[in-house]
Amino acid sequence: MNKNLSAIGFILSGMCILGAIDNVIVLISPEVGLWQFHFARSALAVPMLLAVGLAFGWRLRPNRLWWVTGRNMFLSIAMFIYFGCLGFFPIAQVAAGLFTAPIFVMIISAVWTRQPIGPIRIFAALVGFVGTMLVLRPEVGAFGWPNLIPIAAGLSYAFGNVVTRRWCEGESAFALLWSYMAIMGVMGGAVLVYLMINPTGLDGYLTRGWVWPSGTVWFWIVMQAIFSLIGIGFIMQAYLIGEVTYVTIFEYAMLISAGLTAYLAFGQVVPPLGLLGIAIIVATGVVIVMRTAKADAP
User: Fold this and answer.
1) What DSSP letter does each residue of the chain carry, written as one string?
2) 142 pLDDT exceeds 60?
């Protein structure tokens, strides 16, 4: 029980850090594009991670490189969509889309293993989707609306979570972390090279090539890299020492942290229906996690 309490403390701290630090995209996006942000962040983070790993003698090399790379591709795509959306939408909306992942994990796992889901989890998934719609607030003709793009991050993140369990059993958590950050840097760098060779002529967050931003923006990129690693490190520690069911539930602290930081720092207000939607997402996510854990128990 003490280990679970410690794990809850780590997961709450990690998620609150990530929810807060992801808000700095509002300060970065006017000057730096999405691809340069990820390339620069990984260029800072990966050497730090490798230095720490070597200093402590941790295992750096993945056992199954191709499976780990496939897993990292899914998670990287999720983060590109997530951070891409942060340049245009309030963070509470984008985070709500990301946290549809438990619904998709349930569906993907059921298809993969051919196990029935059960009426309670199906009902929870439907209610959770309604909650997501309350936060994203799409208008009539919703499925063509850009507001639904954050859900794609949740879908890709769910695939990443499922294949982590299926493909990466026995892998070092540290090897998964640094290789994931490296893949994001490589993908961001590849798009930057493409934009240099084939410039779009547009100066937007998604179309901007390499620029030399102000010192303030460089400062926030460095802070984002450092605090992201701290937050992810806390989350890794939580999963290492605690029971997965308990730990996963507290991931939803990121939604609260992200929305509260956005309000205090930038005056972004979540409307009442959005707050109701967030509460529904959290409640249904907890139900899905608990019921899934019960179904998977031997």
Assistant:
1) -HHHHHHHHHHHHHHHHHHHHGGGHHHHTTTS-HHHHHHHHHHHHHHHHHHHHHHHT---S-SSHHHHHHHHHHHHHHHHHHHHHHTTS-HHHHHHHHTTHHHHHHHHHHHHHT----HHHHHHHHHHHHHHHHHH---SSGGGSGGGHHHHHHHHHHHHHHHHHHH-TT--HHHHHHHHHHHHHHHHHHHHHHHHHS--S--STTT-------HHHHHHHHHHHHHHHHHHHHHHHHHHHS-HHHHHHGGGHHHHHHHHHHHHHH-----HHHHHHHHHHHHHHHHHHHHHHHHH--
2) no
